[in-house]
Specification:
Strand order of the largest sheet: 1-2-3-5-4
Number of strands: 14
Structural class: alpha/beta
CATH architecture of the largest domain: 3-Layer(aba) Sandwich
Low-confidence stretches: none
Shape: rod-shaped
Number of helices: 11
CATH class of the largest domain: Alpha Beta
Mean pLDDT: 87
Distance between the termini: 226 Å
């Protein structure tokens, strides 16, 4: 009979045997996640991997769990890498996972959706955060690959539509393992360049080719840019997280260039039309003001002091003529009346009797009517028709 072992000794021995087996180091096991738990304090992840007939326990410590690029969920098919070890206290073996990757395109989509929901909760896709695209940009920064056709398409459109705008090219890798970091760095350079608009572009490609534009880092870098960004990633049917985070999404790089600039020929035509309208408006304005000026000038002439004085002088002359006519008529009338009264007076005048040989005797300038009014020695004056003499009464 073999020696008797304690439970702890047995578990230690099994642990030793497992650890010494090189085939059980750096193993890769695929399966479906179940009973997934993320400890809220330690950050360690505890879960099981299962297939149609078996289950194995797994643990991933926080240092490795924090590096995962997706959020594991029950029901996901994954590939777990790590070492097989025995948990001595419970006497069970488990995989101590160092890495985990989702399996299949469906898992990748799930990972993207998880990142999308995370970014959405942070307000990265909020419409209120979108910045307007300038209508007349002075400089446009283009973040894309130097070797791709997207760059040439953009440059051709910009030179044709709005050649007065300068273009700054910020090259970036748009495919591969370091593409995400390269895009983020190029976006930062473009944002600090003083450009009015940034175009983030790449041509079409497979789903895997567009993965750098579906990363949290790129979407966050777009959201943090102060400069408005137009995304032009892939073709019309492709939509990435970068498209959702950008201020404006366009289906192709050519469309992005068109959205970023006005058509200079349209501007020229609009300017010509506005000039015609302006000339017409100015002519009408001047004509209206000329008519108004003539009206004001005529009104001023009618109401000017000199005109009023002229009218007053004319009125005075008319009144004077009327007065003269009235005076002349009155004088004529009064003269006739005078002549009439003079004739009457002449007829009644006592001097008319002198013409017939009579005289008028006055005493002390008073007419003497009777001899009784005279006394001896009175001096009197006797007036004839042509002369007078003085006499003394005897």
């Amino acid at each position: 009979m073999s020696s008797i072992l304690s439970v702890s000794q047995l578990n230690k021995y099994v642990q030793f045997k497992i650890r010494s087996d090189l085939k059980l180091k750096d193993i890769a096991v695929k399966g479906e996640i179940s009973n997934f738990t993320l400890h809220y304090k330690s950050g360690h992840a505890y879960f099981s991997l299962k297939d149609e007939s078996s289950v194995v326990k797994c643990v991933m410590f926080s240092s490795n769990a924090q590096r995962l690029k997706f959020s594991p969920e029950n029901g996901m098919n994954v590939l777990v890498s790590g070492n097989l070890e025995v948990y001595e206290r419970d006497g069970v073996y488990q995989i101590v996972a160092s890495d985990m990757q989702p399996l299949g395109i469906g898992a990748v989509y799930t990972g993207i959706e998880q990142v999308k929901e995370k970014l959405k909760s942070k307000g990265v896709f909020e419409q209120s955060a979108k910045k307007p695209i300038p209508y007349f940009p002075r400089r446009i920064a283009v973040v894309t690959s130097l070797t791709g056709a997207a760059l040439q398409d953009i440059l051709n459109i910009l030179s044709r539509r709005f050649p007065i705008c300068s273009v700054l090219i910020c090259p970036a890798q748009v495919q591969g393992s370091i593409a995400s970091e390269s895009i983020c760095a190029a976006l930062k350079k473009a944002d600090e360049s003083g450009a009015d608009t940034i175009i983030l572009a790449r041509g079409g490609g497979s789903f895997e080719d567009l993965m750098p534009f579906n990363t949290e880092a790129v979407a966050t870098a777009i959201f943090n840019c102060r400069t408005p960004i137009i995304s032009a990633v892939g073709h019309e049917t492709d939509t990435t997280l970068a498209d959702y985070a950008a201020d404006l999404r366009t289906p192709t790089p050519s469309a992005a260039a068109e959205q970023a600039t006005p058509d200079i020929s349209v501007l020229y035509n609009a300017c010509r039309a506005m000039r015609v309208n302006l000339d017409s408006a100015v002519q009408k304005y001047l004509s209206d003001k000329g008519i108004r000026l003539s009206q004001i000038s005529a009104s001023l002439n009618l109401n000017s002091p000199s005109k009023q004085l002229e009218n007053s002088m004319r009125s005075v002359n008319n009144l004077q003529d009327k007065l003269n006519k009235l005076i002349f008529a009155r004088v004529k009338y009064e003269t006739a009346a005078f002549d009439k009264y003079a004739a009457q007076l002449q007829a009644l005048s006592p001097f008319n009797v002198l013409e017939r040989g009579y005289t008028i005797t006055t005493k002390h300038d008073k007419v003497v009517y009777s001899a009784a009014e005279l006394s001896q020695g009175d001096r009197v004056e006797i007036r004839f028709k042509d002369s007078s003499c003085k006499a003394v009464i005897e």
